[in-house]
Amino acid sequence: MGAGGKDASQIQSEVKEYYGETLATTSDLKTNACCTMHAPPKAIRDILAKVPSEVIAKYYGCGSPLPQGIEGLHVLDLGCGSGRDCYVASKLVGPTGRVTGVDMTPKQLEVARKHQDAYAATLGYANMSFIQGTIEDLSAIPSDSIDIIISNCVVNLSPDKPAVLREAYRVLRHGGEFYFSDVYGDRRLPKELTQHKILVGECIGGALYEQDFLRIARRVGFEDPRVLDSAPIDVKDPQLMELVGEAKFTSVTYRLFKLPGLLESLCEDYGQVAVYKGTVPGHRHAYQLDDHHRFETGRPMLVCGNSAAMVGDSWLGKHFFVTGDRSTHFGLFPCHFSPSADTPTPGGCASCC
């Protein structure tokens, strides 16, 4: 899955050069692949308003992979760059939580570290640390030690995507989650595009064919990947448009849960019901698990076994009531059912819809 015929070290060197030297700010980008598509929630925007301007200026993300309700958890940011998302997560996890950022670009980490003490003073606590290294080798992070991994338009830059996902799975605790935004293509790109320096730097050349990503995710243990949201990528540079032709690219935020033994390849029906408590900050009235599961506060929803595990056996468990177990199986979950005001609402499932 590497980017063409170049070896990993050459690809990493070119990426470091692009983000450390070529790009001064986000205005230098030739596509919107490394730009956030949707405005983040108000609570996140309020935190961002207090993040140092230099950290913001060096931000090249494509989404908003910043879950709320993560107080006291340990968050790992893969490819943290200048640290923008780490700074936000630092506030979200609070004084009892921790945030670790990993990046291979020294000039980006220099910006991240430059402001962390002053930012910690505004919060009244220090809980951020930054490690220089690659996201394919997280040997500095112990196994089963992380609650949530975030990453923002970085996995596509890796010359070894399977290694990234294997390492993410290894360092996550049981019930942990890889909650990240990245760029995907609607086809496999030819070799000359996957090793094109600018296309790779713009998060296009290294974009996985989305079905290949799903195959890799399931192979390493992330069964039943869920899409939270997505947006099309606009390639606006005429020369790059000519190179990519009819290929289409999308920014997608995925949720991958580490729940070994609990997630099945299809959505199965065990008669389980989930009720959201309304306790995630910023989500008092409803919680969006993915693009087809929206839990209204206090409203019972029939869910498949996979969804029951995601909201009941993961870090989200404290925010949900789940009734029923897997002692009785009723067959394949009826994803096609429509909501009814008189009965619990069946939730659709990615694995079978």
Please characterize this protein's 3D structure.
The chain is an alpha/beta fold and 353 residues long. The protein folds into 2 domains: 8-257, Rossmann fold (3-Layer(aba) Sandwich), CATH 3.40.50.150; 272-346, Ribosomal Protein L9, domain 1 (3-Layer(aba) Sandwich), CATH 3.40.5.100. It is 28% helix and 22% strand. The protein contains 12 helices and 14 strands. The protein has helices spanning 8-22, 42-48, 53-57, 84-93, 106-114, 116-123, 161-171, 191-194, 197-201, 210-220, 238-244, 305-312; strands at residues 74-78, 98-103, 128-132, 146-152, 172-185, 208-209, 226-232, 249-257, 272-276, 286-290, 293-296, 301-303, 320-323, 345-346. The strands form 3 sheets. Strands 1, 2, 3, 4, 5, 6, 7 and 8 form an 8-stranded mixed beta sheet that branches. Helix 7 packs parallel to helix 10. It is globular, with a radius of gyration of 20 Å. The model is unreliable at 337-348 (pLDDT under 50).
Secondary-structure-based class equals alpha/beta
- Sheet having the most strands: 8 strands, mixed
What CATH calls the topology of the largest domain is Rossmann fold
- DSSP, total strands: 14
Percent of residues in beta strands: 15-25%
Shape: globular
Structural domain tally:
2
CATH superfamily of the largest domain: Vaccinia Virus protein VP39
N-to-C series of helices and strands: HHHEHEHHEEHEHHEHEHEEEEEHEE
Question: What's the overall average pLDDT, rounded?
Answer: 88
Instruction: Specify the CATH architecture of the largest domain.
Output: 3-Layer(aba) Sandwich
Low-confidence segments, given as residue ranges, are: 337-348
Radius of gyration: 20 Å
- The top level CATH class name of the largest domain: Alpha Beta
Number of helices: 12
* Gap between N and C termini: 27 Å
Helical residues, percent = 25-40%
